C-alpha cells in the first residue's frame, strides 16, 4: 500500500502540468497548456508512426511523449525560439527531473528517468521520432492560427526552419511537411522572411 | 501524401477536445478539459498498471485511454452522475465515433473504432483496467478539492460507490482506494451520506 500511496500522490503532483502555459494557441484561440499538448502529441504518434524514419516501438514513443514535459511542473516552459533561455533551461530541467522522479518508487523512478533522458538526448529511433512530433505540432497549430505566436514573437521563416531541422532525423516525410507549411505561411504573409523586420499582416 | 494529409487534418480536428469542459476541477481550481484529462489518465496507466486485476498490454491500454473521449468533440461530455443524459449519450457517441473516424484512412479508422468499442464495452482486461482509471481520476480530484464538483451536483456517497463499483473489475486494489477515499470524504464532511439532503460544508 505504501507503494500505491506514493504513486497516487505523484499522480496528483502531475496535475500541475495542466497549469503550465505554452506559447502556442489552440484553434479556439487560447494558450495551450503542457498537459493537453502532451496528449495531442501522443495521439499524433498513434496516427503518424508509419512515417517514422526507422521502425519504432510505439509503446516507448508514447511513454516518452506522455512524460516529456512533466519537468515543467518545476522548471516552467521555455519558448523554443528563445536561445538564451533554452541553455539555462537544460540544467533547471535536469534538477527538476531528479526532484520529481525521486517521489516515485525506485524502479519507476529509474524508468521515468531513462525515458526522459532518452527523449532529451534523442538517442534512439523512438526518441528522434517523438522529438519530430514535438516540433511538428506547434508548427501545425501556428499555421492553423495564421502564425499567431510567430507574429507575437517576431519569429522568421529561417528560424522556424533552423529550429525544426531535427524533424528530418525522426521523419523525413514530416520534415517535408514542415518545409511546405513554412513556405505556405510566407506566401500567405504571416511568417516573415529574412530582411523583413516584421511579417506583413493580412 | 494523400494519406498523410488526412492524418494531419484529423490531428487538427482533435484539437477541439481541448475545449470540451468536464465537471471535474483541477487542483488549481478551474474546470478540467477532456484533452488534459486524457493525458492524466494515460499517465495514470503508466504508473498503476502493476495494480491491474489481470496482466495488461500497456500499449493497448494507452491507446484506448488516449482516444476514449474524442467522441466528445461531436457529442459533448456527460456528467457521470446524470443517469438520464448518460443513456441518450450512448447513441450520440456512437454516431460521433462513426463520423469522426470516417475522416481517417480505412485501416486507421478500423483501428480507432476497435479501440473505442473495446473501451466502451469493457470487453478485455485492458479495457476494464482503462475504465477503472477513468473512474478513479475524478474521485482523486474530487477528494483533493474537498468534493467541489460532488457538492455542486449534490452527489452522495452511495452514488459515488454505485457508479464506481466497476473499478473492481479492472483493479481490486484501486477499488479499495476508491472506498477509502469515499469514507474519508464522508468523515471530513464534503460528501453527503444517504438521508442527508446536502453535505455539511466545512
Ligand atoms: Ca513539448
UniProtKB/TrEMBL annotation, chains A, B:
The keyword Metal-binding applies. Signal peptide: none annotated. GO terms for molecular function: 5'-deoxynucleotidase activity; metal ion binding. GO terms for cellular component: cytoplasm. Residues 14-175 form the HD domain. It holds the Pfam family HD_3. Keywords: Hydrolase, Metal-binding. This is Phosphohydrolase. It comes from Thermoanaerobaculum aquaticum.
Amino acid at each position: 500500500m505504501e507503494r500505491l500511496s506514493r504513486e497516487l500522490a505523484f499522480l496528483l503532483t502531475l496535475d500541475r502540468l495542466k497549469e503550465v502555459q505554452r506559447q502556442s494557441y489552440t484553434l479556439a484561440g487560447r494558450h495551450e497548456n503542457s498537459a493537453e499538448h502532451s496528449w495531442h502529441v501522443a495521439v499524433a504518434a498513434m496516427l503518424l508512426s508509419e512515417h517514422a524514419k526507422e521502425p519504432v516501438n510505439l509503446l516507448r514513443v508514447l511513454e516518452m511523449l506522455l512524460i516529456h514535459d512533466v519537468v515543467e511542473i518545476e522548471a516552467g516552459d521555455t519558448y523554443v525560439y528563445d536561445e538564451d533561455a533554452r541553455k539555462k533551461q537544460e540544467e533547471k530541467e535536469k534538477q527538476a527531473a531528479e526532484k520529481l522522479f525521486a517521489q516515485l518508487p525506485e524502479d519507476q523512478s529509474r524508468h521515468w528517468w531513462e525515458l526522459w533522458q532518452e527523449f532529451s538526448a534523442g538517442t534512439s529511433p523512438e526518441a528522434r521520432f517523438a522529438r519530430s512530433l514535438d516540433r511538428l505540432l506547434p508548427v501545425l497549430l501556428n499555421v492553423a492560427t495564421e502564425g499567431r505566436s510567430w507574429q507575437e514573437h517576431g519569429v522568421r521563416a529561417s528560424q522556424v526552419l533552423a529550429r525544426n531541422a531535427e524533424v528530418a532525423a525522426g521523419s523525413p516525410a514530416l520534415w517535408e511537411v514542415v518545409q511546405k507549411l513554412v513556405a505556405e505561411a510566407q506566401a500567405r504573409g504571416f511568417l516573415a522572411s529574412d530582411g523583413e523586420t516584421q511579417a506583413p499582416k493580412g
